[in-house]
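I have a small job for you when you get a moment. Can you supply me with one protein entry, sequence and fold together? It will help me judge whether the discrete encoding reads sensibly. Write everything out right here, beneath this request:
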Amino acid sequence: MVMYPFPALHHATSTQPAIDNHAHPILSASFRSNLPFEGVFSEADGEALTRDAIHTLAGRRATKQLAKLYGLNDGTSWEEVKRHRDGINWEDLCLLCFEKAGIETVLVDDGLGGSGEWAERYKSLGRFMRGDAKRIVRVEVEAEGLLKDILGPYISPGAHGSLKSGHVVRLFETKLTSILSQNASDQDVVGFKSIVCYRTGVDVSLSSSMQEKEDALSEVLDVYRRTGMIRLAHKPLNDTVVRIALGVAGDYEIPVQFHTGLGDSDIRLTKSSPAHLQGIIEAFPKTTFVILHAAYPYTRDAGYLTAMYSNVYLDFGEVFPFVSAEGQRNVLRQVLELSPTNKIMWSSDGHWWPESYYLGAQQAREALYEVLAESVRRGELTEEEAVEVVQNALYRTAERVYRLQEREEMRL
């Protein structure tokens, strides 16, 4: 039996129930093999995922941890791990992963591409935990659905009417404000999420001219006519959507999460640092910003914003399990260099596979113990203070920021 020098801290990191403040739906049983399982520890795609990802330290570590989770021997290969999990009943696998993860409540962004076709509804995650599943609304998805309705009459070759009068832009802005307000009023909705980082970058402008918005809308319409698809990837419109969401969120006192830093190959990394958000943070002081994914590799930028602005919080998810163990510890050290410890929150960024929630929780708990134990050993924190950091990071801060207890009392 391993003896830990700080048993109270180890007990807290191992057993503290967690609020997962940012995750996504899981695949339904019939689609459990629809995506390469290597995605559980890598954001890559193609051969970079299926051939190369297992050779990362993160991939090797995940192999060992999943083998242990499934009750397999040390030294089990990745291919053997995959074959074994294919034989486990999906419901049993989900129950095992969430129980071992210690997740009590999960906040689900259900706007991830493919969720509607392959995944269970977000609410169904609640059956695997003591608490519940709440919803995070992805604002770009809401905006794209609205644009499809508004632009529908304009897509046929003989359609009449102009997008240049300002009428369509104003209609879009008014209706989007109404839709997001309705969402914010829903007791199951606890926050908004923006993926502007993926589309045009987080350097969100403070204003866009009517001409810029009309030109962007015309480009959206051209693509819609050619492809039948609407994808919001035009800076004047994307930035407008973000500003509307921030205004509504401030009015309804719900946070807005921003993807920053690490992501798949759609990301333009130079536009993903949260430092670009500084102007918009100052422009919306009543709105709570949650910077996601430790903003890796821009963690120090995020820490600065969290320390300097009362309305900014930092999530330190996704680096678990996508970054090596030492990298995770270094990220957490950078989070703690400047961020107030009552303003950091854990998430799994779990998606598709129940193991992604387990690995995200298990590795975060290990890193919290190892990094905080260093501070206790050096006398920078008492063990009691370190335990409080853990309780805040895994539970209390998310409960407060997303007003979960308040919402539960209102429901009762």
Residues 187 and 410 are 9 Å apart (CA to CA). The longest helix spans residues 354-377.
